[in-house]
Design a protein that fits this description.
This protein is mainly beta and 379 residues long. The chain has three domains: 136 residues, Immunoglobulin-like, CATH 2.60.40.10; 110 residues, Immunoglobulin-like, CATH 2.60.40.10; 103 residues, Sandwich (Immunoglobulin-like). The chain has one helix and 28 strands. A six-stranded mixed sheet has the order 1-3-10-9-5-7, covered by helices on one side. Strands 11, 13, 15, 16 and 17 form a five-stranded antiparallel sheet that branches. Strands 20, 22, 24, 25 and 26 form a five-stranded antiparallel sheet that branches. The two termini are 68 Å apart. The relative contact order is 0.10.
Length: 379
């Protein structure tokens, strides 16, 4: 709550006679009409005073007791506190249930008998939906505050927004294997409306896309709901490497305003069943480190028989390759390949500093594994 000094308005109250009651009723109606016109002229929002009335016989009143404010910017509203008692009362404090509504403290907290004071409030409606706010005016010596209830109404929810989760579908595995990837489409839509995403499809005939019925959860405002659409994508992985298989697009039950949701690409990132670590050898050696041994480890988690490796003859004289040896866990077929660098390739004599070790395997989908080797003098 933000407090600052403003001038207050004092209005005398007529004696409680029959004529006075008639005049008081006419004054109350006139005040309400003046308030509505003043609010309409003072801001871009639309104001509607509620039909509820303050109980008869109340000696401390706040009017309006209920109000509705609409708009997309801060709006001004005046709350009138009337003292019908025979003694002066004092406003102890004013507080609101939300920081979106700020009430300025009157210049003088005292309200004389038969007088009224005006509290000026600035209320900012939410960007979406509506929000209830309580304005509580505490009087010294009173246990309960005077309460004005204000409903702040923002603009209608915007066009449903779709967020891809994830931004792309990437499947990894051995070439030829079948893969099923699952993810969710997140959409913010109007509460009470029918789901507007009716289906999903892919431009590749080899990819099957299924869209399940969405489940709902709380949206960013009271007027919106967030729907999650489960999606599954089934396809067969192709040859090793990162390959784009197709693009998934949405089928809409109704075309929303604005730009269409972006499509999601489907990639195949196939890995051979025989994996080498490291898959590329970079060696920087000095003469006193020769010979230098490096071990390359292989594994075949998808093999149905023990892994067998057979190196091809090497093409350079500065590299020696030993026979592969078994290694690793019983749940994986593993092997190690020791290689030794026996010399540093010299510049200027045509000796290449790069070569490739080729190994034949008994894996049906990975008959050949290649390991590039780079050697350079250590600086």
């Amino acid at each position: 709550m933000v407090e600052s000094n403003v001038e207050h308005t004092v209005q005398p109250v007529q004696p409680p006679s029959r004529i006075g009651r008639r005049r008081s009723a006419r004054a109350t109606i006139g005040t309400a009409i003046t308030l509505c016109l003043g609010l309409a002229a003072g801001g871009s929002g639309l104001y509607r005073l509620a039909s509820s009335r303050t109980p008869r016989g109340a000696d401390l009143l706040i009017e309006p007791a209920e109000a509705t404010i609409s708009g997309d910017s801060p709006q001004r509203i005046e709350l009138v506190v009337t003292n019908r008692r025979a003694k002066t009362v004092r406003i102890a404090r004013v507080q609101t249930s939300c920081g979106c509504t700020v009430v300025k403290k009157p210049a003088s907290p005292a309200i004389a008998p038969g007088a009224a004071t005006t509290l000026t409030a600035s209320a900012t409606p939410p960007s979406l939906g509506e929000k209830p706010v309580r304005v509580e005016v505490y009087i010294e010596g009173e246990a309960r505050p005077l309460v004005a209830r204000i409903t702040l109404k923002g603009r209608d929810p915007p066009v449903p927004a779709v967020n891809w989760q994830p931004l792309e579908v990437v499947a990894r595995g051995a070439p030829g294997s079948e893969q099923v990837e699952k993810f969710e489409l997140l959409s913010t839509e109007h509460k009470g409306s029918q789901p507007w995403i009716s289906g999903a499809k892919c431009d590749s005939p080899g990819i099957k896309v299924e869209l399940a019925s969405p489940h709902e959860e709380r949206g960013p405002s009271a007027a919106t709901v967030r729907r999650k659409y489960p999606v599954s994508v089934a396809f067969t992985l192709e040859k090793p490497g990162r390959i784009r298989l197709g693009t998934i697009s949405l089928e809409l039950s109704s075309v929303p305003d604005g730009s269409a949701p972006r499509s999601i690409p489907v990639f195949s990132d196939c890995r051979p069943s025989v994996e080498a670590a490291p898959d590329t050898v970079f060696a920087s050696v000095s003469p006193d480190e020769l010979p230098k041994e490096i071990v390359v480890r292989f594994r075949a988690p998808l093999m149905s028989s023990p892994l067998e490796l057979k190196p091809d003859p090497i093409e350079v004289a500065w590299l020696e390759v030993d026979e592969p040896r078994a290694s690793g866990s019983p749940s994986l077929f593993c092997a190690e390949l020791p290689i030794r660098i026996t010399a540093i390739p010299a510049e200027g004599n045509g000796t290449p500093r790069r070569t490739t070790i080729r190994l034949r395997t008994n894996a049906p989908d990975c008959p050949l594994v290649e390991i590039p080797v780079y050697v350079q003098p250590k600086s």
